[in-house]
Design goal:
With 222 residues, the protein is mostly helical. It has ten helices and no strands.
């Protein structure tokens, strides 16, 4: 049966509201991080909170919808770095791209520590990114460019360190960022100045990142 004109209008209005919510949430998360309330996002989208909740019952559902494209960009950046014929240039370009992503979106780092079992696309892209990053690190080591004790957990260390620049740098964060990244990349280059302490387990590293954003207890905000 063909849809009536009122039905078409209702669906069109619902889709417009959904897009307004996503657009508002994307901007708010980028500017202020994920700690903002659903009520505040509804206000920014100029819709009622019940309208927002009907479309996104939890903040995790909203975050997943907002960041699916960013997760794809993250995985694509790792794939692009892996395709670079120069193993070291590929690795450094990826680290620099992470810094740029953080500078442009405060919520980006937090999303990388969260799990979204209902967002198949987001989780798939994060897994793709991790696999490419692991290969990127292994290849840079095999070419003698990256110090042997560098681990995938150290990428999280970069994110934690650089998040301080994003949060505290204010108007000059964009000027501070390249200097910090340059220091880190020099430290990562083979052979390294000396042995490092063993890294903590990946789960402990993620928890440290969550604590920094005030979300230690639960990686899925409600």
């Amino acid at each position: 049966m063909a849809a009536t004109e009122p039905d078409k209008h209702l669906r069109a209005d619902a889709e417009r509201n959904r897009q307004r919510i996503i657009d508002a949430a994307r901007q708010v998360f980028a500017d202020e991080g994920l700690g903002v309330s659903m009520r505040y996002i509804a206000q920014r989208a100029e819709v009622g909170e019940p309208t927002l909740r009907r479309r996104f019952p939890t903040k995790a559902a909203l975050v997943a919808a907002v960041f699916e494209d960013k997760a794809t960009a993250y995985a694509d950046a790792a794939a692009k770095a892996l395709a670079d014929p120069d193993a070291w240039l590929g690795f450094t370009a990826f680290v620099q791209s992470l810094a740029c992503m953080q500078l442009g979106d405060r919520g980006f780092t937090e999303v990388l520590t969260m799990t979204f079992p209902k967002s198949i696309r987001l989780e798939k892209e994060r897994r793709r990114a991790y696999e490419n990053i692991s290969m990127l690190i292994a290849r840079a080591k095999a070419h003698g460019a990256l110090r042997e004790d560098f681990t995938p957990e150290d990428i999280i260390l970069v994110l934690i360190a650089h998040a301080g620049i994003v949060a505290g740098g204010g108007d000059i964060a964009g000027k501070l960022s390249p200097r910090l990244i340059a220091y880190l990349l020099q430290a990562f280059a083979a052979p390294g100045a000396g042995p490092l302490p063993a890294p903590p387990a990946m789960v402990e590293t993620y928890r440290a990142l969550l604590r920094m954003h005030g979300d230690e207890q639960d990686s899925q905000p409600s």
